[in-house]
Amino acid sequence: MRTAITTLLLAVVVAAAAAFTGTPLQLTRASPASTAAQSPRSTLVMRERACDLLGKKANRKARVVTFSHKRIHKVQQVNLQWKRFYSDDLGRNVRLRLSTKGIKTVNKYGSIDAAAKKFGVNLAKY
After folding, report:
1. Dist. CA 104–CA 109, nearest whole Å
2. Residue 47: phi, psi to the nearest 5?
3. For the packed helices 100-109 and 112-119, what is the interaxial angle rounded to 10 degrees?
4. pLDDT tens for residues 100-120?
5. For 18-70, where are the E strands, in sequence order?
6. pLDDT tens digit string along 41-88?
7. 3-state secondary structure at position 60
8. C-alpha closest to that of 101 among 87, 122, 115, 120
9. Is the entire prediction scored with pTM above 0.70?
């Protein structure tokens, strides 16, 4: 009886040890390049909410003062608009995500090419 119990106990220990020393389960995620080849909708990339020309970003330091004089932090987002301009240098339309101040800047310089040259933006990316 004693040898049966020790044999059973030894088998349990070996089985438990084998469960933890086996090869781990491989959980692989598909890379973005391979998923883009499979589905045309997966090419969408999350972009930062920033102006493509001026680089304006959200003001994360804004505060609201309530009636009881509590100071609550809030985020002031940039007023971004999708705008299409014709680039004479590229000979095609470029679609940019500009702030309203950026749109006024393009109007001031006369063309998107002049504004992009002034601020060092490569329009070929858009």
Report:
1. 9
2. -110, 155
3. 110
4. 999 999 999 999 999 999 999
5. 59-65
6. 667 778 889 999 999 999 999 999 999 999 999 999 999 999 999 999
7. strand
8. 115
9. no
